Amino acid sequence: MSTRTTPSPRRTIAPAGTGSPPLVLVLALGGLLSACATTTSPTGRTQVVGGMSEAQLQQLGIQAFDQAKKNKQISTNATQTRYVRCVVNSITRELPAGQQAGWEVALFVDDEPNAFALPGGKVGVNTGIFKVARNQDQLAAVVAHEVGHVISNHHDERITRQMGAQTGLGLLGALVGARYGQSAASTTGQLGGAAVQAGLLLPNNRTQETEADVVGQQLMARAGYDPHQAVDLWKNMMSASGGQPPEWLSTHPNPASRIQELDSRADSLAPTWQQAQAAGRRPRCG
């Protein structure tokens, strides 16, 4: 994509602190560190961002996605791939002008029920997601949540925080633990690979997860999907995992509370969904 997939709210430059990373870190990350700034998330939360430029953040997202495609088997099931791409396209059409087109989608043969979205317009979905996302509305809830991370500047926020908290090459080693499995983590031994993983595939914190729930549920409703299906998706996830959240959800909010909050928001978003349907946004993906 030629433009970054996140909105560009007005930013104010924050004063440099005494804990600024040393030059070796800047060099190790290819000069990615720039002046930090504050911005406001879609839910009104103040964020510290600006650890790298928008172009650099997009490039890291593209590199991480390319690495995932090299390391994981891509599905040859054309029907499932079209289905996922249809849902992704219907969600990204609800983004601001200039951010809607050009999203690349990959369906990976992986039994883990997972998905991700990255700066640079990239979405990866595991075939295992179909075990819990049992209709197009539930798949839309997954996709919208992951896209919500991107448009809420969460990758920028995490990278900026990590770059400010660690120094030198030790940072890169500490950040190799990737969110999407040990196979991805094992490929980051070289400096370049670690830089791609840093801040992009790390687990999101609970604040970011809750925010992505809010933003994602709004997106899916505007796209014409029933926001109540986000609740059913989470119930399916809990049922599939024997009542316990899977390992990749360990940093997420309490599942019971999350389901309650999603249910409450779904009621308030019902008019948005109904208006979208009345306006002709009736996805027919699968």
UniProtKB/TrEMBL annotation:
Pfam families on file: Peptidase_M48
Cofactor(s) the protein needs: Zn(2+)
Record-annotated Peptidase M48 domain positions: 80-265
CDD domains: M48C_Oma1_like (cd07331)
Keywords of the record: Hydrolase, Metal-binding, Metalloprotease, Protease, Zinc
Manner of cofactor binding, per the entry note: Binds 1 zinc ion per subunit.
Stored PANTHER family: M48 FAMILY METALLOPEPTIDASE, METALLOENDOPEPTIDASE OMA1
Family statement drawn from the similarity comment of this UniProt entry: Belongs to the peptidase M48 family.
Entry protein name: M48 family metallopeptidase
Organism whose genome encodes this protein: Marilutibacter chinensis
